[in-house]
Design goal:
Order of helices and strands: HHHHEHEHEEHEHEE
Shape: globular
Number of domains: 1
CATH architecture: 3-Layer(aba) Sandwich
Strand content: 15-25%
Strand order of the largest sheet: 3-2-1-4-5-7-6
Structural class: alpha/beta
Largest sheet: 7 strands, mixed
CATH class: Alpha Beta
């Protein structure tokens, strides 16, 4: 997976994930309201509903979180603010995309270098790499937002997504949470529309993640849009930011 380059001094003591909060905590609200967030991030809040999604995930101060395929760092910054100095955020860029236009790894390294981001580590390894023993049963949350479908696309050069999910399972503590948020494709379509529409069948995602040993723990419909027919490219102006998106929560059994 992605941890050959990460040195871990010691195993972290296991703590069970707390019960899902019914409303965003004060810590979540403060993390989102922080003046450290750039205006370009804040402008996306209305369409991404970060307070509700992070409450659904149960991220809290002191947690160790992985932001998979972090893009420009929108979620990385919020998690950094939220977990605080006692927590850690791993911003993971699959090695398969490091050569993309805009240099995704350089972008997230720049985020990690921002003032106050000492708890952020930018990392990159091949998607299917498995974590070393010292990085197993360590993380509280693995998070991927609107990029899970891309893991199956041709530019990933046949990367093994099943192996990635198994690695995510290994690095999470017992009781740890795996969150997948993505654009919904028509029911029964499987992987048909990952490349042309940038959508994926929610049922396919659930089955694929469960194969790695995860237990499905529920869905948030905060980003659902029943009016979206699920047939348009997600970047089209008419649907951008308004697609029908599913948010699935999976748990590593205790």
């Amino acid at each position: 997976m992605f941890f050959r380059s990460v040195a871990v001094a010691a195993l972290i003591a296991w703590q069970a994930t707390p019960a899902l909060a019914q409303a965003p905590s004060k810590a979540i609200v403060a993390a989102i309201a922080s003046p450290s967030r750039p205006a370009s991030d804040v402008a996306l809040d209305a369409s991404r509903r970060p307070a509700a999604l992070i409450a659904f995930a149960g991220v809290k101060p002191g947690d160790k979180v992985m932001d998979v395929w972090p893009g420009a760092g929108y979620w990385t910054r919020i998690f950094s603010n939220l977990v605080g100095p006692d927590g850690q955020v791993y911003a993971y860029v699959p090695a398969e995309i490091t050569g993309f236009a805009g240099s995704p790894l350089a972008v997230i390294k720049a985020v990690a270098a921002e003032p106050g981001r000492g708890n952020v580590m930018a990392i990159s390894d091949p998607l299917a790499d498995q974590p070393p023993p010292e990085f197993q049963n360590v993380l509280d949350v693995v998070w991927t937002f609107e990029n899970y479908h891309d893991l199956h696309d041709s530019f990933m050069k046949g990367a093994n997504v099943d192996a990635f999910n198994r690695a995510a399972f290994k690095i999470l503590k017992p009781g740890g949470v795996y969150i997948v948020v993505d654009h919904a494709a028509p029911a029964g379509s499987g992987l048909k529309n990952t490349e042309d529409l940038h959508r994926i069948d929610p049922a396919f995602v659930r089955a694929e993640v469960e194969k790695a040993g995860f237990v499905f723990a529920g869905e948030s419909r905060v980003l659902a849009n029943p009016a979206d027919p699920r047939t348009a490219l997600v970047f089209k102006p008419a649907v951008r930011g308004k697609t029908d998106r599913f948010a699935y929560k999976f748990i590593k059994p205790e």
